[in-house]
Amino acid sequence: MLYQLFIAWRYLFAKKRLNAINIVSGVAAAGVAVATAAMVCVLSVMNGFGELVEDMFSQFDPDLKITCTTSKYFDTADERFRRISELPEIKDISRTIEENALIRFSDKQVSATVKGVEEKFRSLTNIDDILTDGDFQLYDGAFERTVMGRGLANSVGIGAHFITGMRLYAPSRTKRVNMLAPEKSLREESVWISGVFAVNQMKYDDNYMLVSIGLAERLFEYSDTEATAVEVFLKDGASVKSAKKKIRAILPNDYKVLDRFEQQEDFFRILEIEKLLTFLLLTMIILIAALNIVGSLSMLMLDKREDIAVFATLGADDKGIRNIFLFEGWLVSSLGAIGGILLGLVLCYLQIRFSLIKLGDGTNFIISAYPVAVEPTDIIATLIVVLLLGFITAFIPARQAAKSTFH
Question: What is the DSSP track for 254-303?
Fold first, then answer.
């Protein structure tokens, strides 16, 4: 096996009688390198966009979210929630109430998702970083306040400095609907806007408004210990996986503990599918580039017919002859793979460091340049795929070389 690899290595760099063989081999290796570099760059850019979106959600979503599978709401006075708050990984927990309501402002009526949060919500999240207008204030001592998503505020036609209040309506949970006077079955609260936020995700910007937990309790008729979810915030450096496991051990099976991926599972699943499809498409491009190896090996076999005859005379069998050219093709693809990965990493570094490729003029986008995040798993997967495709494309002409010698 070692002598076959040694001969293949010598054939790769030794001077051939036909200079075209060197050119074709170089073109094959360069083609594989370019396709490999493209895969590294494209996957890293997709990772960058994924991290960008994750950072956006993290400014609004908690590290972990506890919900009930058997009921829309649950009682947080349970002793188990106190035990959760005392776990070493936990920074704090916060009770939330989230329901749909109708907003009425001037002559406009818009449905919205009203989320009641505790006052400590501001210190536990990065809500101040995503405020585009006004301040984060849920109660000013006299009036109830709200912070709304930018899209929802535009739909209502209101801004952070408006002095006119809005009316919120929600169906009563304790009264039966009076069909003759359905408006009497609605709960009603007044609220004044204090700020506007932008997560740059339609799910939140176009639908959500934050209010005090007290207003949500009155509007939706919840007690001061009931909640639709408990949001868990971890200390810096704490393991999400470890904290989630400990919380699951405390709570019964009718509770779900969702990490950030699970809270936005549909969105992140789409990103994963897009990345997989992109990987498969680029794999096909690498396969096309690797087919050039077939041509270079075929020309090399013609150039080395005398050598093949000598090897056969010295006792080399068909497997040994096949392995020489198999290693030859594999070495070409290996050089292309390594060179392509190095090239891709250099391009990714230059993009991270200097933001070479911009997103338009930089004024209509959240970021000015394409984001890049290199993941080791992508590099390993790319290397494996390129080496495997190089091996497969080299096997057919290598086997043909053995057959032409002994048959």
Answer: TEEEEEHHHHTHHHHHHHHHHHHHHHHHHHHHHHHHHTHHHHHHHHHHHH
- Give the whole-angstrom CA distance, residue 69 versus residue 250: 16
Report how far residue 27's alpha carbon sits from residue 237's, in angstroms, rounded to the nearest whole number.
48
Query: How many angstroms separate the CA atoms of 399 and 321, rounded?
Result: 8
Block residue for tokens 């058997």 = 70
Token pair in block for residue 132: 């585009």
| 208, 239, 263 - which closes a domain | 263
Q: Any alpha helices (H) in 16-147, and if so which ranges? A: 19-58, 79-85, 121-124
Q: What is the pLDDT of residues 331-390, one digit of tens each?
A: 899 999 999 999 999 999 999 999 999 987 656 778 889 999 999 999 999 999 999 998
Judge whether 197 and 127 are in contact, CB under 8 Å: yes
376 and 236 part of one domain? no
Q: Work out whether strand 186-197 and strand 226-227 pair parallel, antiparallel, or are unpaired.
A: unpaired
83 with 47, same domain: the answer is no
Residues ≥6 apart with Cβ < 8 Å to 283: 39, 385, 389
What are the tens digits of pLDDT across the range 76-126? Answer: 999 999 999 999 999 999 999 999 999 999 999 999 999 999 999 999 998
Cα–Cα distances in angstroms (integers) from residue 59 to residues 184, 257, 294, 345, in the given order: 38, 19, 52, 30
Tell me: do 299 and 398 sit in the same domain.
yes
N-terminal to C-terminal alpha carbon distance within the chain: 23
Residues 53 and 68 occupy one common structural domain: no
Are residues 279 and 192 part of one domain? no
Q: Are residues 272 and 233 both part of a single domain?
A: no
Task: Please give the share of the chain, as a percent, with pLDDT higher than 70.
Answer: 92
Domain carrying residue 328: 2-57+268-406
Last residue within a domain, chosen from 263, 285, 318: 263
Do 88 and 35 fall into the same domain? Answer: no
* Domains: count for the chain: 2
Global pTM reads 0.85
Same domain, 75 and 170: yes
**Which residues, other chains included, contact 12 with Cβ-Cβ below 8 Å and sequence gap of 6+?**
25, 328, 331, 332
